[in-house]
Amino acid sequence: MRVVTLGVHVLDVLVRPVDAIPEGQGATLVEDLRMTAAGTAGGTALTLAKLGATVRTAGAVGTDPTGDLLIQLLGRGGVDTGLLVRRADTPTSASVLPIRPDGDRPSLHLLGANITYGLDDVPWDAIAAATHLHLGGPELIGADTAARILAHAREHGTVTSVDLLAPGVLGSFEQLAAALPYVDHLLPNEDQVLGFSGAGDLLAGVEKLRAAGAGTVAVTRGGDGVLVVGDDGTETVPAFAVDVVDTTGCGDAFSAGYLRGVSLGRAPGEAAVLGCAAAALVAGGLGSDHGVFDLAAADAFAAATPRKTVGQPPTG
């Protein structure tokens, strides 16, 4: 698998556990603080590399020390960062994530250089030479730009996938519609399906996205697992029963595991099992890069770990 992950790159600063932000000039002690590479392109790239893919990542970061560290962390994880462009006049995107004891993660986020990426920055030849293109956060670069990039990949036989960044409440169908005919695998979460489709229930939202051109849609639903909808029907894949430390990067890890499964010829449902395993392994520690595992270890984890009871997709 030769994959280009294109789109959002973020440096995460994670602190846990945080029950509340101290008032005024107050201070509190924490157990852990880490900085990790993250984002719908950057975080997905890290887990894809763990699972044995050859990964090149493309996007925009600043020339600031934050960008230096982000590139260093990606490189340490086995990701080729040569396709990243650097902006002297815009900071690198970053987030501060105070992780709650239950693993939830409110965010303080700086958009930074991600929103400056455009068609002049796209590595067209690298995309054409890849077996897979994963576009993370198309809503930041615009549907028409995303459509141009995805269409180019399709023209050269590159399998395409898309993950979303914005919460559903900020989404609209127009932010995706132009790109959907060029998407082989769409990997949103449940909230994003409802928000971006404008539909009243999850299945109706998925069908609206597929009717507009998307191929297989694999919807992550947190503890309720994954809903996979494709030409062969609908399948619900349970999540794994694990103790969650931090949910940061779990969606990106799912995307990576799912796409690695697809690259190995696995059916979408089986690819989703690998995606859930990768997400569960990342959820066991702090940050998008948590866990020392490879493809064999992820498959072994999936075979040995109990699943949760499957939740049914909500209807309106």
Structural account:
The protein is α/β, with parallel strands linked by helices. It has one domain (2-19, 32-304): 3-Layer(aba) Sandwich (UDP-N-acetylmuramoyl-L-alanine:D-glutamate ligase), CATH 3.40.1190. It is 32% helix and 23% strand. It has 10 helices and 13 strands. The strands form 2 sheets. The chain has a 9-stranded mixed beta sheet, sandwiched between helices. The protein has a 4-stranded mixed beta sheet with strand order 3-2-6-7. Strand 11 and strand 12 form a beta hairpin. The longest helix has 16 residues, at 268-283. The protein is globular and about 55 Å long. The termini are far apart. The relative contact order is 0.15.
- Tell me the CATH architecture: 3-Layer(aba) Sandwich
CATH homologous superfamily - what is it? Ribokinase
Q: What is the 3D form?
A: globular
Proportion of strand residues: 15-25%
Q: Number of helix segments?
A: 10
CATH class: Alpha Beta
Distance between the termini: 40 Å
Structural class: alpha/beta
Number of DSSP-assigned strands: 13
Number of domains: 1
User: Roughly how much helix do the residues carry, as a percent range?
Assistant: 25-40%
Average predicted confidence as pLDDT: 94
What is the compact description of this entry?
By secondary structure, the chain is of the alpha/beta class. Helices cover 32% and strands 23% of the residues.
Label this structure with key terms.
316 residues; alpha/beta; UDP-N-acetylmuramoyl-L-alanine:D-glutamate ligase; 9-stranded mixed sheet; 4-stranded mixed sheet; 10 helices; 13 strands
